[in-house]
Amino acid sequence: MKTIGNVINKYDVTFVFNENKEDNFKFMTFIPQIDEETCKEIVTLPKIVNICANGQIERKSIFPSKNPKDIKKCPINVGMGSLYPFGIINHKEKYKTFDPLNETEVRGLDVDLVKVLVNQFNGTLNLYFIYKKEENPFGQLDFIPLVLNGSLDVIAGGFYRIYGNVVAYSGIYTSQAVTWMYVANRTTKSWQSLIVKIDGLYIFVIFHLIYSYVWYFVRKFDEQAVDFRNTILYSWGALVGTTSLQDALSLKQRILNLTYLIMCVHLSAYVSLHLYYFLTVLEPPELLKSNDDVMRSGRPAFLIPISKYFVLDEKYLSFANASEECTKFQDCSDLSLLRNGVTIILQGFFLNYQARTAINYEAKVLSAAENVLTVYYEMLLRKNSPYVERLQKLMTHLFEAGIPDRFYRHAIGLTVIGKAHSACQNTVSNSYSCQSGCKITFDQFAGVFYLWLFGCVLSCGAFIFELFSKFGRA
């Protein structure tokens, strides 16, 4: 039986024995065990997995799993790549592929996750460095032979299902968005922006002219003295609140003045509301919701040359062709912030960058609401490893329990995520509060002073012209 066990120990084969020729049967099979000294699988005597007595079986299982559940502190070799926040390796530049790593030098979502998995096997975790291109791991296969020859059981650290069938996969345990990042710029408060905002003043100017003409013709009809120039000046002065209207000498003139004064009050309220809005409300920054909004915004794009053509869309490709080059996520982000541009960034990098660049508790950078795409992460497993099936089941259970998501947040940092979300909310909420918009500066009213100085210059010019005219006549 032991000789047979060495042959069939990996297969779903169960033997049925009837020892006493009664209606009692034993179901037996060979389940490999881990030898503590050699850490190799060995086959012992067959084990009873079920019993059928009087036509009833004790358990439903007849073909039990033969994958080891307890490997008795034997090592599980895990290769760890570098990608924030999955594998964060201190001084990663000093390591080469398959250099051993100390657990104190590595942290991240995948590190926490493999510790849980190894603990479930009662194994010992051995970590090894795997060099991977963080920005573009596609097509990089130099570390795959380490899985095929048995040197590594698992490869983790932010990998995808892009290596075909040469390896097995753990199953999806987390995902993150790839999105556009752009600078959140508010409109600067200035007297020019105030004038632009008050865009309905022409209506009052039209009514002012209508009143002036009507007043002129009414006075003419009543055969009273009237000067159209004085009518224009007095009605304008009343409109801006600097002088009174001309005296009304008839009922129709009084009615005309009354309705005009009501309009003057409305003008004052209209300007006051705009002034209050201008001083107390900060408009939200330009919000780019879709990918099309980003590409139509006119902002320069900063993209990594080796990885920017990952979306086969005509609009995106033309936009990517016109982009400027940068080397890494950090470089692209810094250039976008410095030059009011846009870049593509992973969600994990974005949250960290948003929290780090926040100013006065407000986000300096925002992300588009529409994702460019969503990346799903899986660990790579050695196909002939005895841990594959159980690892996949454990990963499924952990994913359903929300453990990877918790580790993801922990790897980025709960304070970092909280600060990023708070800064993003403040960018919008402060737009409609008086926390930072009520401060009044001379720059905001500079236009009034410029207008006054221009009037003084015109008055001086008119005064000089009158003097020269008087001396000329003399």
UniProtKB/TrEMBL annotation:
- Where does the source fall among the domains of life? Eukaryota
Q: Which residues form the Ionotropic glutamate receptor C-terminal domain?
A: 202-456
Q: Name one GO molecular function term.
A: ligand-gated monoatomic ion channel activity
Instruction: List where this protein forms a coiled coil.
Output: none
Q: How does it sit in the membrane?
A: Multi-pass membrane protein
> InterPro entries, from UniProt?
Insect_Ionotropic_Sensory_Rcpt (IPR052192), Iontro_rcpt_C (IPR001320)
> Pfam families annotated for this entry?
Lig_chan
One GO-annotated biological process of the protein: detection of stimulus involved in sensory perception
Instruction: For this UniProt record, give its keywords in alphabetical order, as a comma-separated list.
Output: Cell membrane, Glycoprotein, Membrane, Receptor, Transmembrane, Transmembrane helix
Location relative to the cell: Cell membrane
Where do transmembrane segments lie in this chain? 200-218, 258-279, 449-468
Q: Which SUPFAM superfamilies match?
A: Periplasmic binding protein-like II (SSF53850)
Q: What is its main location?
A: membrane
Q: Name one GO cellular component term.
A: plasma membrane
Indicate the family of this protein. Answer: Belongs to the glutamate-gated ion channel (TC 1.A.10.1) family.
| The protein's name in its UniProt record | Ionotropic glutamate receptor C-terminal domain-containing protein
Q: Which organism is it from?
A: Bombyx mori (Silk moth)
